[in-house]
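Section handout 9: paired folding examples.
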Amino acid sequence: MPAALQITLQGISFVTAFLLIRTLSIADYAIYSGFLVLSQALMSACDLGAVSSIGYFYKKVERQAALFLRYFRAVVQVRSFLFVIVAVILYPALFFGSSLGSQVTALPLLIAISIATSVFQASYGTTATALRFVSPNGVVTSLVIEVFSSVARLALIGLIITLLAFDSARTALLITAIVAAAQAIASWRALNRHLPPHKEMGNDPAPLPRREVLSYVLPIIPGGLYHSLQPLLLTWLAAYNGGLRQIAEVSVLGRIGLVFGVLSFVVSYQIIPALARADSQAQFLRVYFKSAIGMIVLLLAALAGGFLFPSQIMSLAGAKYSALDAFLPVALAAAVLQIIGGFAVSVLRLEGWNRFEPACTILQILGQVAWILLVPINSTHDIIVFSFVSTSLYCLPYILLNVLGLLAPQAFEQRPSA
C-alpha cells in the first residue's frame, strides 16, 4: 500500500511539473520556479534540524505519547522562531543580491504567496513527520493526504489551462499555496487523533524542553541552513548571469530529478521510521544495509537511463528546452548524490551522530568558494556542473560520518566538561 501510494504521488508530481513546463512561457516558468525554490528554501532553512529531531526524541522517550507531545510542542515553537528570523534574511538576499527583482511584476503579491506557501508546507512537514512515528498507520495516512493534495493541484491546473488558457506564474503559485494550506490542515487533524489533548498538560508546571531541542539542533544549524540555501544559490547564479531563461533551464533540469523522488519518500516515510523502531542493533543494521544497497541499485539503474536516452527524456519538456539534453547526465548524477546524501544525513540525525556536522559544512563552504573563485560560472552548463560539485561536497562527508557512527558510535558521545 505505501509503495503504491508513493509511486502514484511521484507520478502525479511528475505530470504536474511537466504540464507547467510545457504550458508556461520560459519567462513565466522561470518566475514560477524561482518563487517555488524560494518557498522551499525558506521552509528548509527554518527547520534547521527541528523536524529531524522528532524521530530522535520519539526514540528517546521510548514511544510514550504524553512525553513525546512535550518534545513535539517544543520543536514547533523552536521552528516557528527560526522561521521569522530566516525569512527576514532570505528574501532580501535573493531580490537585492541578483537582478531577479527587476524582472518580476507584482513582486509584493508573489512574495506574500511564497511566504504563505512556506508556512503551510513547514506546518505539514512537522505534523506529517510526527504522524509517521506516533501512528501505526501514519505513513499511509500522510501519503493519502499528499496524494489527494497532488490530485487536487493537478486538477485545478488542468481545469484552468483548459477553460482559461492559463499561462500565469501567479496562478500556478496561488494554486500551490491553496493546496499546501489544505494539506497542512488535514495533517494537523490526523495528528491530533493520536496525541493526548493539549489540555492534559495545562496544569503541568514544568517548562517545555526547548533547551534540549536547541542543544540537539545547534550542531545542525550551520549545515541545515547552508544546505537549504543550495537551490536558492543556483537560482541566484542563474539570475545574476543569465536572467529568466537560465533560471528556467536550470529548473527544468532539476525537475527531471523528480524520477528519483520516490526514493526520497521511501527514506522519510519508511526507512527512517523503521530504523527508529528497531529493537536491537542487529535489526537496525539489517534495515540500514538492506535499504542502502537497494537504493543504490535503483539509483544507478535510473542514472544509466539518463546517460543512454538523454534526448528522449528531455523531449518531455518540449521543444523550448531541446538543447539541454547534453546537460542531463550531469544533472541526474547530482540528483543521485542528493538522494544518497539525504539518506546519510537522516540516519546521522536519527542516531544523534551530528556532533561533527559543523566540520562538514565548513568543508562544503570552502569547496564551493574555491570553485566559484577558480572556475567561471556563466552558462547553464557551468551551473549544472557547479551543482554536481556542490552535491558531492555535501554527500561524501556524511557518508564517512555514517561509517564512523556504525563502527565507532562512541566517537559522537558528548564528553563531560571538567
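Moving on to protein 2 of 2.
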Amino acid sequence: MKKFTLITIYQSEISLSEWLNEVRQFVVQLIVIVPIAHRNEVNAEGVEIPIKWIDIEERNVCAYYLHTIAQLDTEWIINCSMNTKLTLLFFEELNVKIASESNKNNQFIAYPTKVSFIGKQLNYGGFTKEPSIICYHKNTVSKNTIIRTKKLNYRSTEWFVQTYDNLQLSFIWKAEVDSQQLFNKNKKTSYYRFFAVPFCALMTKWILKGGFLDGREGFSLAYLYALKGLNKELFLWKKHKNIP
C-alpha cells in the first residue's frame, strides 16, 4: 500500500499521538501548521512520525509550504483537521482508488456525516457537502494542472469540532494555498470579484441553504466561508502586484 504525508492544523485539545495511533502505518511524514504564538504549547510526545512545522504567521508561509511539498519523499498528500477520524477502511479505499485511476491529476475527497461548530451540530447550510478530507498528488500543488475531483465512499464521522479562531486560521491558510494555485495558472482577480465571491459564499451558505436556521453558529460558519473567499481574492491580487 502507498504511504502518505498528512497535513493538518494543530489543535491543542487533541493528542497527536492518539489521533495517529490507528493509521501510523500509512503515514510517513506529518506537516503541522501552527501559530507562532502557540508554538511553545505544542505537544508531540509519543509521535514517532517525522514532523515538519509551518508557522502560519510567517510572511513566506506559502513559499515555505510549496518548498516543503517539493521535498517530500511521498507522492500523495492528505489534508484534514485533527478532529477528522482516519481509519484503516479509509486508507484501503484510497489506495484502491489511486491504483485504479492511475492519474496524478486526480484529487480524492471524503465528506463528513455531520458537522459541529462551537459545540453545536449544524443541520443546514450545506456544510456536509464540504469535503473534510482531501488527498492530492504533490505535483498538482505547484504545477499548472487541471485537477479532477473524485469522491470517496468513506464518510468521516464529524467535522469542525474546533474553536472559531482555529477554524479561521485554517481557512486563511487554505485561501493562501488556493490563491497560489490560481496564480500558477495565471488566473487574475478583479474589483468585482472582491465583492461577488464573499457575498455569494455568504448568501449561499446562510440564506439559500438555510444556514440561518442554525442560528448564530450557522451565521458564523457562513461568515468564515465568505471571509475565506475574500482572502483568496486578496492573496491572488497581492501576488500579481508582487506585494508581500
